[in-house]
Amino acid sequence: MGMMINSDQSDDDVIGTINTTPLVDIMLVLLIIFLITVPVVTHTIPVKLPEEKNTPYATTPQNIQLSVNKTGDIFWNEQHVANKETLLARLQVEAQKRPQPEVHIRGDQLTHYEAIDQVISTTQQAGIGKIAFVTTPPSSP
Q1: Taking residues 24-52, what's their average pLDDT?
Q2: Which residues are CB-contacts of 76 (< 8 A; sequence separation ≥ 6)?
Q3: What's 78's domain CATH number?
Q4: Integer Cα distance of 119 and 91 in angstroms
């Protein structure tokens, strides 16, 4: 018959501490996975994207305002231009100035594209280097 010595300590006692070894193992595996996959995810083709800038419209005396209404009539600083040849002659005079003036084209929403295209091609034919379009900014919601 056996005897029990030190009966107050048995092998069936509950361990009151948390075993953190599996937790540390899982965290190390996740760390290694992230270290391997992050450089693959961030690898892209280097492209320099254009920067958008919103400059306020400023009317200066040297700018030429060309307006085209919905019927295709052309106006130079609010004065009617009779035909394309007159417009070309006036633009050629302006193209000789240094610095060259900017041409700002204002087209009605209902204007046919051909009328705007005629103004653009006439401006380019005259030798003006800078053409801009004037639009209305969108309304705030």
Answers
A1: 78
A2: 64, 65, 66, 87, 90
A3: 3.30.420.270
A4: 11
